[in-house]
Every structure is written in C-alpha cells, then in structure tokens.
C-alpha cells in the first residue's frame, strides 16, 4: 500500500471510502470518472487511487464539476433509507434493490480469487488488470514478487516449496517477457519509431510469457454493480472455500455499508446466514461423492468437443422467428413451420439474418431458442477469458497442473524453451503434490498455461457474440482457436442456417495480431489528444 502525503490523503478521503485498505468504494465522483478509472485498471500497473491523483485530480475541470454534484445537504436521506428498510427487509421486494449501485475496487487480490467474483453474472460488470498488456514481474517493498501466499500453505511443511516454485515461475516469466522482445523484433521486423509496433511486440511478449503466471498472481479489479447483485455476491461468497475470497467479501460488505447500506443489509442478517448454511451443506454433501468420479491417469489434450446440442435447433429458431408475425397459437404455427420446404426455410433465415454490417449488429432473439454445449480442454488462460461471458452457463473442475501444459510458439528460436519447461515442470510436480493434501489452496500454483477442462452451455445468439468477438484478430491466439472451433462445429450442425450464422468469424492467422488494432487506436488518439498505451 502506498504512503500518501497528508495532502494526498485529504483529497483521497473525499472520494474513496478509505485510503489504506485493498477494498474501497468510489464516492462523490461523476459516473464518467468512476467508469474511466475502472477501465484504466485493464492497462495499468498503478493502483486506482494513484491513478486518480495522477490523472484526474490535477485537472481543473474536475474541480469545477465536483462541487455541483455532491451537495446532499438539503436531502432527507434517512427517509429513503427507511423506505428501503421497509420494502426490502419488511416485504422482501428484491427488485427495488436493483435501483442503486456502487463502484468497488479490489486491489492486491489473487487471480484465482477474482474468478470467484466474476463467476457471478447478473447485475455486475467487471474490469480486471490485463495479463495481456501489463507486466506482472514488479516486486513489493521487500523485494518479493507480488503473489498470494495462502496462510494454510505458509503454516504447512509446503511453505518453502510453494514459495520457491512461485518465485521460479516469476523469475522465468520476467526473463521471458523481456528477452522475447528482441527475438520477436528479429522475427517480425518493423518500424521502431512506430509506437503501435513497439507496443504490439510488448503485448505479444506478454501473451507468450503469460502461461508461466500462477493463479496466486496479485492483480487489481473493479466491480460495478447494483445493490441486489452485490447482496447476492456477499451472501454466497462468504461461504467460499477460499479464505482469501471470504476476507475480500467481508471487506466489500464493510465498504458498501458506507455507500449503499440499505441495499445490502440482508447479506449478513439471519436470512443471509441461512442461505450460507444451505450452500455449505450442499458443498459438504457433494464432497462425499467426488471419489467416485476420479481417474488415476488424468489426460489433457487441447480440444473442443460438442457434447450436446439441440437436434431441433433450426426448427425451433424458425418458430421463434415466425411467432411475432403470426396470430396462430404455437401448436398450429409449429405444424405450419414443420411443413415448410427447405428453400423457404433458407429464405426465412436469410430474411432474419441478412444485412448485419458488423459484429455489433446483434442477431435477433429467436436464436436464443437453440442451445449447444461444449467441453473445452485448453490452457487456464482460455478459461479466464471465456468465463467472462455472463450469458454462458459454465462449469469448471478444480483447477490443476496435472494435465500438463501448453508451449507457446517462438520460445525455441529465441532459446527460451528450456527455462520455460523447467519452471512449468516444477510447478506441475509441486502443485500435484500439495493438491493431495490441500486441493483447494493448491490451485494457487496452477499456471495460466496449464491445461484444464471446463464446460459451457450457450444459446445460439450468445454463440454469435462469443465466436465473432473472440475470433477477432486482436484476441489471444489460443482462445481464438477455441472460438473458431466452436464456430465450425455449430455451423456443421445447422445445414440451412449455418451459412448465415457467423459472417464475422475471423479464421485467419496473424503474426503481430494487435498491430492493426493499436494503429487504429493511435490514429484516434492523435485526433482526440489521449494517451493510448501507458507504458507502465
Ligand atoms: C480483445 C479483448 C480484450 C479484453 N481486455 C480486457 C481487459 O483488459 N480487462 C478486462 O477486465 N476484460 C477484458 N476483456 C473482456 C471483456 O471486458 C468482457 O468481459 C468479455 O468480452 C465478456 O463480456 P461481453 O461484454 O463481451 O459480453 P457477455 O458477458 O458475453 O454478454 C453478451 C452481451 O450481453 C449484454 N450484456 C451482458 N451483461 C450486460 C450488462 N451487465 N449490462 C449491459 N449489457 C450486458 C451485452 O450486450 C453483451 O455484449 C477483453 C475482451 C477482448 C475481446
């Protein structure tokens, strides 16, 4: 945590619910500044309060806006608080708890813990420091790499082994992320004076070194959400098996009580406790089953497998397209649709889906009628990126290094393959060893490059969003492959609809995939006088 000067502290006290803790809320600020601050998390190594002081406080413009916005003197806030007390606690009318929200920052939280928060979907928006753009080899004041040391492991005989393994991963990460850049410049020569070129080399090196980062890596994240969503988040995560998650959740609860107290009261009252007991008991009951579902020879191969799909997908989508344009009851419409000739069906699909100019033009809701389920075996980094899609139903197995790991390209020509393998082999061996005694906390040593299994179920409309977005050129090549494969497999199951469904799926391979995107940003930045890629 930074040591603020007395002047800085005075400023911060006005806009943040505390100045020292890792969890804090943003108050008395225009929405546009709160949003901008959170979005800066993604590309910056700085903490949010430092960003605020460096980039926003100094602007005279802000000083002018603020006094007009935070004058609550003449408002009867307690009357409104009483209303919420009556409606929420008294009548349990949950929807009114969605009518207010808060921005909460979580800093120095492990990557593993962030997933517990991000697994929540409705009513919450997340922004997280990106492993694809920011270096993660900074050290703390004591010269230690910035990763979480779970008390349970630190108090155990594994303490030394855990820290030595994580240190080795970070040493190797640091070596790779910097040493790869000259090698990439030789492989992909470009104009050194072009910031977009320099930044795409740096970003490529971040992508290639990222597999080494363990889930213990400390990061920053912002959550914006409505009161109801926060209440549910707190209620459920206080039952998390991870102590770190429980601590952060308690801190969120504390800070929200300074901003929207009336909205989150039930998270920790008797009702909240009952809910938690229900979750904990379910967890205990299911734990007893798990020994039946283990193999002694776990395998891991990168794969995307369609495990379930709707054989009537096209029929159901056609019915949903037609329904709003008909006055027939569904059972009659169903019969009519079932009698349609293939050429007419195709024409109807065309009429429904034609003329999308780009991926932002969403297809209609009729596509939500068809479902597909995939098991994905891929590096953990792919899980990290795909799980952020809130419309998916997604399930993962306990994270592990036991299935092996992926090897990024270009390490061999750069002479960096051997140190990569050594660090990953050690992480595999040690994590598996710790997992035998402490499976939950051993997950902190799982690496971004470790192959893991997860399962997603999605409707066709979300599939269009996911496949088109995640196959875009600037995406990480490993999740692009998964998105492209999902697209291919869905298309193959839709003989008539297939040709219209993913017009913006990008199947090309690129070398410096983010160069074009950075050039575009540079062009816009020059026009609008903003700094596109802060290099910290
Ligand atoms: C190239 C790239 C770089 C990225 N970099 C970062 C990064 O640095 N840091 C980071 O944290 N994330 C990053 N992300 C992830 C991104 O922020 C999203 O979390 C992710 O794309 C999934 O969310 P979504 O908005 O695309 O849609 P989904 O969650 O899949 O939802 C589908 C659609 O539903 C609607 N929707 C869903 N939820 C809401 C809501 N609450 N309010 C309004 N509409 C909603 C939207 O229309 C949305 O497009 C990156 C993604 C990409 C593709």
Helix and strand arrangement:
Blueprint: H1 6-15, E1 23-25, H2 31-41, H3 48-57, H4 60-69, H5 77-91, E2 101-110, H6 111-118, E3 124-128, H7 151-154, H8 159-187, H9 195-209, E4 218-226, H10 227-237, H11 243-259, H12 261-264, H13 270-287, E5 303-309, H14 313-322, H15 330-338, H16 342-353, E6 371-379, H17 380-386, E7 393-396, H18 417-437, H19 439-442, E8 451-459, H20 460-470, H21 477-492, H22 498-501, H23 515-528
Antiparallel strand pairs: 1-2, 2-4, 3-4, 5-6, 6-8, 7-8
Helix pairs in contact: 2-3, 8-9, 8-18, 9-23, 10-11, 14-15, 20-21
Give an account of the 3D structure.
- With 536 residues, the protein is an alpha+beta fold.
- Among the domains are: 6-130 and 217-287, Gyrase A, domain 2; 305-395 and 453-505, 2-Layer Sandwich (Gyrase A, domain 2), CATH 3.30.1360.170.
- Helix content is 50%, strand content 10%.
- The chain has helices at residues 6-15, 31-41, 48-57, 60-69, 77-91, 111-118, 151-154, 159-187, 195-209, 227-237, 243-259, 261-264, 270-287, 313-322, 330-338, 342-353, 380-386, 417-437, 439-442, 460-470, 477-492, 498-501, 515-528, and strands at residues 23-25, 101-110, 124-128, 218-226, 303-309, 371-379, 393-396, 451-459.
- The strands form two sheets. Strands 1-2-4-3 form a four-stranded antiparallel β-sheet, sandwiched between helices. A four-stranded antiparallel β-sheet has the order 5-6-8-7.
- Helix 20 (460-470) runs antiparallel to helix 21 (477-492).
- The longest helix is centred in the first third of the chain and has 29 residues, at 159-187.
- The relative contact order is 0.12.
- Flavin-adenine dinucleotide is lined by residues 42, 125-128, 130, 388-391, 465, 469, 474-475.
């Amino acid at each position: 945590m930074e040591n603020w000067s007395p002047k800085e502290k005075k400023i911060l006290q006005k806009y943040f619910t505390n100045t020292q803790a890792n969890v804090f809320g943003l108050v008395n600020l225009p929405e546009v500044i709160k949003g901008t601050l959170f979005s800066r998390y993604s590309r910056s190594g700085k903490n949010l309060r430092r960003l605020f002081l460096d980039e926003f406080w100094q602007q005279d413009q802000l000083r002018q806006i603020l006094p007009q916005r935070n004058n609550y003197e003449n408002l009867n806030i307690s009357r409104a608080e009483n209303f919420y007390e009556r409606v929420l606690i008294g009548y349990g009318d949950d929807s009114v708890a969605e009518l207010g929200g808060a921005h909460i920052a979580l800093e120095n939280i492990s990557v593993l813990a962030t997933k517990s928060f991000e697994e929540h979907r409705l009513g919450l928006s997340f922004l997280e420091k990106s492993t694809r753009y920011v270096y993660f080899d900074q050290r703390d004041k004591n010269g230690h790499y910035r990763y979480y040391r779970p008390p349970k492991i630190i108090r155990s005989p594994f303490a030394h082994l855990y820290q030595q393994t994580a240190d080795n991963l970070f040493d190797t990460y640091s070596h790779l992320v910097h040493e790869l850049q000259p090698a990439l410049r030789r492989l992909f020569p470009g104009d050194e004076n072009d910031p977009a070129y320099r930044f795409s080399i740096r970003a490529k090196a971040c992508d290639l070194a990222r597999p080494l980062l363990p889930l213990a890596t400390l990061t920053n994240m912002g959550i914006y959400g409505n009161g109801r969503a926060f209440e549910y988040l707190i209620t459920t995560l206080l039952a998390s098996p991870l102590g770190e998650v429980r601590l952060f959740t308690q801190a969120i609860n504390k800070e929200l009580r300074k901003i929207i107290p009336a909205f989150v009261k039930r998270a920790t009252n008797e009702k909240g406790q009952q809910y938690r007991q229900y979750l904990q008991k379910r967890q205990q009951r299911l734990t007893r089953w798990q020994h039946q579902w283990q193999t002694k020879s776990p395998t891991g191969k990168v794969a995307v497998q369609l495990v379930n799909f709707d054989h009537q997908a096209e029929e159901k989508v056609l019915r949903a397209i037609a329904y709003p344009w008909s006055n027939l009851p569904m059972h009659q419409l169903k019969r009519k649709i079932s009698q349609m000739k293939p050429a007419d069906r195709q024409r109807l699909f065309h009429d429904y889906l034609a003329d999308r100019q780009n991926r932002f033009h969403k297809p209609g809701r009729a596509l939500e009628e068809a479902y597909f389920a995939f098991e994905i075996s891929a590096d953990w980094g792919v899980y990290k990126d795909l799980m952020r899609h809130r419309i998916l139903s997604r399930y993962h197995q306990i994270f592990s290094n036991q299935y092996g790991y992926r090897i990024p390209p270009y390490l061999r020509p750069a002479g960096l393959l051997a140190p990569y393998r050594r660090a990953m082999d050690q992480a595999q061996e040690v994590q598996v060893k710790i997992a035998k005694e402490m499976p939950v906390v051993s997950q902190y040593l799982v690496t971004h490059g470790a192959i893991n299994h997860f399962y997603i179920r999605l409707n066709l409309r979300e599939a269009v969003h996911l496949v088109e977005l995640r196959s875009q050129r600037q995406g990480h090549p490993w999740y692009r492959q998964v998105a492209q494969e999902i697209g291919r497999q869905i298309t193959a199951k839709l003989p008539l609809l297939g040709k219209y469904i993913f017009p913006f799926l990008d199947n090309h391979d690129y070398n410096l995939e983010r160069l074009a995107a950075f050039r575009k940003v540079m062009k816009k930045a020059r026009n609008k006088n903003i700094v596109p890629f802060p290099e910290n």
